[in-house]
Write the structure tokens for this entry.
Amino acid sequence: MRKHLILFGVIAVVLLSSCASTRTRESLYPKMYSEHPTTIVVMPPINNTTNVEAKDLLYTSISYPLIEAGYYVVSPHLVLEMLKAESAYDAELFIDRDLQVFAQVFGADAVIFPVINTWQKEGIGIHTNLHYIVRSTVTNETLFERQCDLFLDFSRNIANDKDNKLLSGLINLAAAAIETAVTDHIVAARKCNEFIFSDLPRGKYSPDFNQDRERGAAEKDIRAVVR
């Protein structure tokens, strides 16, 4: 019986290793490699929450990780101004429509639709749930899609001295309150973007362009707690 259990365990490990090894960037996002988008338009986020500030806070944090990943990102300010001029500020108007207009106007190969499902303060942290969809302006197909459910914990462990537990706790709460009031939402957005774009196939302007096909990839839906 013991031998059978050991054998079963070995087989399970082999199978799990095999499954993990086949989950590469190319296997999850093959159309990113067949189309190789270079220029990207980032749409204003679709906000499904009651936090009216979330839309603008997130919009300012998306371009940088995309540039770091090797893509040319059309100026969000320019995109926003043109959409407003056409009375088309809401990305919901475009998410299910033909996107060739973005190729014609901006020379874009792809459009990113950020969707905010959750954005709220919980205790001394921030809970966010973001869903990103990258669609082609050539084929209108989805090239990349990923969701991140993240809790950003602002708690602090300033002192370990047992005699100062109460004072330490008060300092922790005060420091957390100040930090949360000032930087929590921006930090949460940046952290979530880091997780979401960590497995995005690298773009033309990255040294890893077309060299990361076999690189291991995580799940499309991510849950994380970070400090």
